[in-house]
């Protein structure tokens, strides 16, 4: 008898109906009937009396229910006790470490991961650490090889322009971006401003990008919406209808429960 058989039996016992149990568990009713029949055949006893009006419980069902509930409770307690050892290591690019990781860390803890270890690395270093099993999954905003990796969670990230000038009316200004020429925020900003004249100021970290918007006159950058609440309100925020696809990526064989 499989563990799932006990779950199905308990649901049928408590509902007193194959069809109601099927609805509650998301099965079709014939599957529930067949699984109960399988249990009865394996045990060599009848658990339910089938009639035109439905089913009625037989004494053996009462006995099996008591044992099944104990097994399920023991299993629940075991999982709860072992969860203190449940750890997940998550890598992220510097920008996503600010915009995505804090909120998603709470979700991971809600899924039973007592220890969530976050680290920040460049995009190339992230994939290296993933391949060497130094992290379990990574947050990225780039394309990836779906033959080697899989997306555990994905969403579209809204963007905004942060500036210390009226860049719409200026003919020449500075754009502050990542040194990484494949950075999606850099590429998006350059595409949006392709008809404008600008100077490029680039850095290898988010902190320097944000600092330059404060200190370098006539400067503009593009950031994920998740950072909007933390920026200085003396700066100008312009929300735009542009997006970047974000994925939580793991190796194909990795099993991660996201609840």
Protein model, in words:
This protein has an eight-stranded mixed beta sheet, with helices on both faces. A two-stranded antiparallel ribbon has the order 1-2. The protein is built from nine helices and ten strands. It is α/β, with parallel strands linked by helices and 259 residues long.
Brief write-up:
The protein contains 9 helices and 10 strands.
SSE topology:
Layout: H1 3-15, H2 18-25, H3 29-43, E1 48-51, E2 54-57, H4 59-82, E3 87-92, H5 94-99, H6 101-110, E4 115-120, H7 123-131, E5 137-140, E6 149-163, E7 172-178, H8 184-192, E8 197-203, H9 206-215, E9 219-224, E10 236-251
Parallel strand pairs: 3-4, 3-5, 7-8, 7-9
Antiparallel strand pairs: 1-2, 5-10, 6-9, 6-10
Helix pairs in contact: 1-2, 1-3, 1-4, 2-3
The residue ranges in which pLDDT falls below 50 over 5 or more consecutive positions are none
CA radius of gyration: 27 Å
**In what order do the strands lie side by side in the largest sheet?**
4-3-5-10-6-9-7-8
What percent strand? 25-35%
Structural class: alpha/beta
- Report on the biggest sheet: 8 strands, mixed
Helical segment tally?
9
Order of helices and strands: HHHEEHEHHEHEEEHEHEE
Total number of beta strands: 10
Helix content bin: 40-55%
Distance between the termini: 26 Å
Question: What's the pLDDT, averaged over the residues?
Answer: 92
Basic shape? elongated
